[in-house]
Write a structure and sequence with these properties.
heterodimer, A: mainly alpha, MetI-like fold, 9 helices, B: mainly alpha
Chain lengths: ~280, ~325
């Protein structure tokens, strides 16, 4: 990966603008959910089960327990953003630390860490997340832990590669020659030089994380049932696919949309900062 | 070549060991005291002591790990709590169906990805190039469960072209043709993301190759466009193979969701039911089994890579 700062006059790519606007819109929806004039997402009226789209008072219909689907979709945005952003932030921090320590700690340490990471890479990520979340017990926290754990190796590998590219450069040798210890080198010489690439790489993981988080909830391992969450809604509404086929598609489409939005933003950031990467996992 | 394969094989041993260690650690993550949950709150201390020594829980963790590994190595994965059947038995009988689905998905992903990527790189007009790249971007972003549900709603519920679930016709029992019919939708659903990623990677790799000098030289000599495309593809394929392993991992992960939606009787569906029943031995047995078979698949991919690209045979 090589990075060059954008020239001040170059216009940001359309993907970056569109992605930023769309992500801000998602954040706005999540933040404004309590203020919008919507029915309670968790309380249903069993006499109004499975209303179709366009019913009076329920523009997107109701689910099997008579809860308003539009309201649940709006409230579900919160869980989706948490599932997308928190694990990436946690794994980004831990992975960067691990990668820097491995990259500066000499070939022996680097080799040990990289072989350890290879073991995690041997798992299909979804399955490892399932295994961890199932062991910890279903819930928001175990879902976030599981997603963070599976992302750390990916981030750490990118960081190690970046640090390896810096290690032999003149300013690093100068720093070592002047007697700087490795924490100083890591903080003042390595971190500022890898942060842009690593952030761009991490931004590309958010969309994936939204999809996986909703997937874990779909499997019953994420957000606890009464709370509105898109993945759990898909699992709930797909039971009625023969009676109300369109209903189940709504949360499925919401997850797809969120995934596209974050991927567009990631792609925009990548092309704006001209990061060339082959790490697209 | 033999030396390369042997070295790869030697590297796979510590990986399998590490994979088992990770699964063992997740068994230790389970909150609560297993002895208390088995005996209930009224058990006497003597009974607790006896059970925990019988389960080997008094041993130090490394000893517990090696005992567990010894059992797993001999195929003793434990008993499924929900089904009261041997875990290996359950996993093994579902494995074939999952392998069939994954193989079909991989085939679609590879053919579709290469076709899309080639259109994206070779087409001389803008609209097809743009369409190919937009489609692969969307394919890469679509969650497996979303596309699976869309396929069910449109093609199975609305238009009734293809069956909505299962593996065989429940009445006639179905021959190979029937299984194939049931296979189409789930295979397309698991193929979507890897297809998008493969198309984008290939497109980028082809663009690099097409900008290189030897392609200019071919153009200057007036070679036919198809010939140039063949040469460019051959140059771009090895870089594609390096990501095929990762993509296979992603595909196998997606199988869990797709099998659940289509009631495909494979490992993923078994895992979904095991999660609902909190059947941890089955979950961990299934995950370990897939991860280990995955190390083996990667070994094969590496071998294929070495076969077509002599540079990696170092």
């Amino acid at each position: 990966m090589a990075i060059s700062p954008p020239s001040p006059r170059s216009r940001p790519p359309a993907a970056l603008v569109a992605g930023t606007v769309a992500v801000l819109a998602l954040v706005l929806v999540a933040a404004l959910a309590p203020l919008l004039p919507l029915p309670d997402p968790d309380v249903g009226d069993l006499s109004h089960r499975l209303l179709s789209l366009g019913s009076p008072g329920h523009p997107l219909g109701t689910d099997g327990q008579g809860r308003d689907v539009l309201s649940r979709l709006v409230w579900g945005t919160q869980a989706s953003l948490v599932a997308g952003l928190v694990p990436v932030a946690v794994a980004g921090t831990l992975g960067t630390l691990l990668g820097i320590v491995a990259g500066l700690g000499g070939p022996r340490l680097e080799n040990t860490v990289m072989r350890g990471l290879d073991v995690i890479f041997a798992f299909p990520a979804v399955l490892l997340a399932i295994s961890i979340a199932a062991s910890l017990g279903a819930g928001l926290v175990s879902m976030l832990v599981a997603l963070s754990v599976i992302l750390v190796p990916a981030v750490a590998r990118v960081v190690v590669t970046e640090v390896a590219g810096l290690r032999e450069l003149d300013f690093m040798q100068a720093a070592r020659a002047s007697g700087a210890r490795w924490p100083t080198i890591a903080r003042w010489h390595v971190l500022p030089n890898i942060l842009p690439q690593v952030s761009v790489y991490c931004s590309a993981l958010v969309g994936l994380c939204v999809v996986l988080g909703a997937g874990l909830s779909f499997l019953g391992l994420g957000v606890a049932p009464p709370r509105a969450e898109w993945g759990a809604m898909v699992d709930d509404l797909r039971q009625h696919v023969f009676t109300a086929p369109l209903l189940a598609l709504l949360p499925a489409a919401a997850i797809f949309l969120a995934s596209v939005v974050f991927n567009v933003l990631g792609e925009g950031l990548r092309s704006h900062f001209d990061v060339r990467s082959r790490h697209t996992a | 070549m033999t030396r390369f394969l042997l070295r790869r094989l030697a590297l796979a041993v510590p990986t399998v060991f590490g994979v088992s260690l990770v699964v063992f650690v997740t068994t230790k993550l389970v909150p609560g005291d297993p002895v208390a949950s088995l005996l209930g709150p009224l058990a006497t201390p003597t009974a607790r002591q006896e059970l925990s020594s019988r389960l080997g829980l008094n041993e130090p963790l490394p000893a517990q790990f090696f005992t567990w590994l010894w059992n797993v190595g001999q195929g003793r994965f434990g008993t499924s709590i929900q089904l009261q059947r041997d875990v290996l038995d359950v996993v093994w009988s579902a494995f074939g169906n999952t392998a069939l689905l994954a193989a079909a998905g991989a085939l679609i992903a590879f053919i579709g990805g290469v076709a899309l990527g080639a259109v994206g790189a070779f087409s001389s007009r803008r609209p097809p190039r743009w369409l190919a790249s937009a489609f692969s971007f969307l394919a890469m972003s679509v969650p497996q469960y979303s596309i699976a549900l869309l396929l069910v709603v449109v093609l199975a519920v609305r238009y009734r072209v293809l069956p909505a679930g299962g593996m065989r016709d429940p009445i006639s029992g179905g021959g190979p043709g029937d299984v194939l019919l049931h296979l189409v939708l789930p295979a397309v659903a698991v193929a979507m993301i890897p297809m998008g990623v493969i198309a984008r990677m290939l497109s980028a790799a082809l663009a690099d190759v097409l900008a290189s000098d030897h392609i200019d030289a071919m153009r200057a000599r007036g070679l036919h466009r198809a010939t140039i495309a063949r040469h460019a593809l051959h140059n771009a394929l090895p870089s594609l193979l390096t990501i095929v392993g990762l993509q296979l991992a992603y595909l196998v992960g997606g199988v869990v969701f797709v099998e659940t939606i289509f009631s495909w009787p494979g490992l993923g569906h078994a895992l979904y039911n095991a999660i609902a029943a909190r059947d941890l031995p089955l979950i961990q047995g299934g995950v370990l089994f897939i991860a280990v078979s995955f190390v083996l698949i990667n070994l094969v991919v590496d071998g294929a890579h070495a076969l077509i690209d002599p540079r990696v045979r170092r």
